[in-house]
């Protein structure tokens, strides 16, 4: 997902100019056993906070928010967050996101065919523009 950050930051700046852009980082964890869940949630929260700090060091005029969602269906959670703003820190008047940016591996494997790609599911279900970034 980090591969999508630089293009998402550039797009945020371009679409929000001359105002400062707002970027929301999201991570969705599927449900696990409770002992594992507590440790995993803490690790992801630390990762999101670290990622926000690194971006803030480089991008002084970009506003950042982040959220960690626990949901059985990653694609559905991302769609609900992006389209309604549910689960994200809201700014005045916010009702969700203007664009979704996400990384995709672009695999066409049997596993993807059977389970479905999260990116593909988001693409086919959302009415929002979707920036898909394929990692190098």
Structural class: alpha/beta
User: In what order do the strands lie side by side in the largest sheet?
Assistant: 1-2
Relative strand content: 15-25%
Following the backbone from N to C, one meets helices and strands in this order, namely HEHEHEHHE
Taking all Cα atoms into account, the compactness measure Rg is 15 Å
Number of helices: 5
pLDDT averaged over residues = 84
| Overall body shape | globular
Instruction: Please outline the major beta sheet.
Output: 2 strands, parallel
Low-confidence stretches: 110-115
Helix content: 40-55%
**Number of beta strands:** 4
CA-to-CA gap between the ends?
12 Å
Summarize the structure.
The chain is α/β, with parallel strands linked by helices and 136 residues long. Helices cover 46% and strands 18% of the residues.
